[in-house]
Amino acid sequence: MFDNLSEKLGEIIRKTSGNAQLTEDNMQDMIREIRRALLGADVSLNVVKAFITNLKEKALGEKVIHSVEPSQMLVKIVHDELTEILGSKNAPLNLTSNPSLIMMLGLQGSGKTTSSAKLAKKLKGDGAKPLLVGCDIYRPAAINQLKILADEINCDFFTVENSKDVVHIIKSAIDFAKTNNNTVLILDTAGRLQIDTDMMAELLIIERSFALNEKLLVIDSMTGQEAVDIAKNFDEQLSITGIILTKLDGDQRGGASLSVSYSTKKPIKFVGMGEKIEPLEAFHPERMADRILGMGDVVTLVEKAQKAFDEKKAKELEEKMLKNSFSFDDFLKLQKQMKMLGSIDSILSMLPIKGLNRDDRQKISNEGEKQFKKMEVMISSMTPDERKNPDILNSSRKRRIAKGAGVSIEEFTRFCAQFEMMRKMMKGLGGLKSAFSGQEAKKAQLNMINQANSMKNKYRFK
C-alpha cells in the first residue's frame, strides 16, 4: 500500500537535500511534484488542493526556512500534513454500553461481511465476547457466509431464519446476547450494488429503533476516488461514526485512505489486509504517515509481535534454546509464530530501511518465502525421531532426507550446519537471562516499546 506515493515523495525529499534553504522559487518545483504525486495516487482533487495550500503556508515561513536543514523541514511538514489529512489521531471504538451495538454499513462487494468477522476476531482478542448478527434479509447467502465465518473464528452467531423484519432480528439478538453474556453485537446489514432509497430507508429504521454505539462504513480502498462519494452519501444520511478500509494491502496508490477521512471529517478506525480472517488493524494516522514517508512502523510491529507470540510457548522454547535441546519441531513452531506477524514483505515495510524500494523488498520477500518453504519440506522429510533429535542425523540419514525433500545433499548439509550454528548461538545467550527477571523483565519490555516508538524520531525534524 502507498508504494507509488511513498517512492515519489522519497525522490522529492531527496532532491531538497542539495538546497541550502527552501525559497519560494525552489519550492514551486517541489510543490508541483508533490501535487503530481498525490494526484497519481488517486487522491481527491479537493484534498490535494487543501494539502498543497497548507504545505505552502508552512514551508515558506521565514523562521522555518532558516532554522533547519531543508530536507528535514520538508519531511516534518509533509508528515504533519499527511497525519492531519488521515485524521490526526487514532479513534477507538465506543463500547460504553452492555451490550454495545455496532452497525456495519457498505455496498455489496466492499468486504462488509468479512470485515464483520475480522472485527469480531479482534474484539475477542481484546477480551470482549462478540455476537455476529445476520441482518441481510434479502440475501440468504450473506447470512450463510457470516455463519461459516463465525464458526471459523469460534464466535457466537445469531439470526432469525426466514425473517423479513430486520428490527425483529436485532431485538431478538439483543435478548439472546443478554442471556448469553455477549458484550458486543456486530450487525451485518444488507448492502446493494449502489446506494438506493430502499437500502437507506432500512438502515434509517435500524438507526432510529436502537441506540447504536457505532455506525461503521466499510469501503473497498480499490475503488479510489469513488470511495469519497460513497462515504459522503452514507454520512449525509446516517452520520457514520467511522470508516473501515478493506483491501488496503492491494492498493498501491492509497488515494481512498488519503481522501475519505478528510472529506467526511470522520475517522478511519480500522483497515483490513488480505482475504484471510485475521483481526482488523487499528488505524493510526501518524504511523501511516511514517510508513508513507519511508520511516517504517516499528511500534505496530512490536505490538503485533506481543500478540502473535504465545507467552507459555515462548517460555518453553526459551528453555530448550538455553539447554541446547532446540529441535527441528521447535524450529517449525517458531516459524509458525513468525508467520502470524505477516508476510516478510509486510514486516520489511514496517522497518525504517533507507533505500529499500518496493521491487527490492518484494525480491527479498519472495526469496525468503521460498527458503522458508524449502526448510519446511526438508524438516517434513525427517522421521519424528530425527525432528526431535537433530544430533542423530548421520550421512545416510541426510542422503535419505535430501532425496525425499528433492534437494541436493550439499544444500541439506548446509541447512543442518546453519541450524546447528543457530542452536549454539542461542545457548550462548543464556548468560543474559539472569539480567532480566520479575519486574525487571516488565521494565525491559516497556523500554523496548519506548525505544521502538522513538526510532522513527531520528528521521524526523524536531
Topology at a glance:
Elements: H1 3-16, H2 24-40, H3 45-59, H4 62-67, H5 70-85, E1 100-105, H6 112-125, E2 130-134, H7 140-152, E3 156-158, H8 166-180, E4 184-188, H9 197-209, E5 214-220, H10 226-238, E6 242-246, H11 257-264, E7 268-271, E8 281-282, H12 285-292, H13 298-308, H14 311-322, H15 328-339, H16 344-349, H17 358-380, H18 384-388, H19 395-405, H20 409-428, H21 439-455
Parallel strand pairs: 1-4, 1-5, 2-3, 2-4, 5-6, 6-7
Antiparallel strand pairs: 7-8
Polypeptide structure, described:
With 462 residues, the chain is α/β, with parallel strands linked by helices. The chain is 58% helix and 8% strand. Strands 3-2-4-1-5-6-7-8 form an 8-stranded mixed β-sheet, sandwiched between helices. Helix 7 links the parallel strand 2 and strand 3. Helix 1 runs antiparallel to helix 5 and helix 10 runs parallel beside helix 11. The two termini are 27 Å apart.
- What strand order characterises the main sheet? 3-2-4-1-5-6-7-8
| CATH homologous superfamily designation of the largest domain | P-loop containing nucleotide triphosphate hydrolases
Order of helices and strands: HHHHHEHEHEHEHEHEHEEHHHHHHHHHH
Strands, total number:
8
Annotation field: number of helices: 21
User: Major beta sheet, specifics?
Assistant: 8 strands, mixed
What is the gist of this entry?
This protein has 462 residues and is an alpha/beta fold.
Key structural traits:
single chain, 462 residues, alpha/beta, Four Helix Bundle (Hemerythrin (Met), subunit A), 434 Repressor (Amino-terminal Domain), eight-stranded mixed sheet, 8 strands, 58% helix, 8% strand, flat, disordered C terminus
